[in-house]
Description:
Blueprint: E1 12-16, E2 32-36, E3 40-42, E4 47-55, E5 59-66, E6 71-77, E7 88-89, E8 94-97, E9 109-114, E10 125-126, H1 128-131, H2 142-147, E11 159-161, H3 165-170, E12 176-178, E13 184-190, E14 193-199, E15 206-211
Antiparallel strand pairs: 1-2, 2-9, 3-8, 4-5, 4-7, 5-6, 6-9, 9-10, 11-12, 13-14, 14-15
The protein binds zinc ion.
Amino acid sequence: MGKYRSPFKAAAKQTLAFKVKGSWAAGYHTGEDWVCNNTALVSPCSGTVLRNEWDDSYGNFVVIRANDNKVILMAHMKSKSALKVGAGVKAGDAVGTMGSTGNSTGAHLHIEVQNAKTWGYNKNLLKPSDYIDFSDTTNINAQEEAFMAKTYKNGSTTEKVYQTTADCKAGKDAVGSLNTYETCECVGIYDGCYAVVYTLDGTSSKKIGFVKYSGGVK
Ligand SMILES: [Zn+2]
């Protein structure tokens, strides 16, 4: 299979390489450090959230198990991730914000890839950039590109609009509908739902909400 996508949404720079010797417990650097002007972090892979915790060394960190049974750790995040342990994630889903929590002297992402089903310190280490294409910073997949074409056409599917991703996933308590002749812009994907800014028909007021993508957009 190909490499995982970048955990960043823009070009990133490696600031510390894998296995550099130093004062860590392992005696060397167990991952790679990267920085990016855009501090948003996304999942490099589709898979399952295994951990979302605090550690004095790693700060706020998450571990995601990719569907091909490798695990990816992302550390030093600014705050605790909104991801739920046990939840599924898709490559490109929001994970958190790059930060400097734990044993860190400046904002960066420390990322580890392990050839295992669960993460363990200094175990089954792989060189992250052998498995992650840090130049693959696409924010959207082909389906989302279609979604972001912005224009709904008559004859396609009306989308119900929800105020929260929980309501959106449950399909309950819709606050409105996005008709096929209205325009919208997808501004991100959160928890498997599409955040949209849309303009109400005949007005210039803009609203924001979440929709499920039902394939109705051309
Ligand atoms: Zn590091």
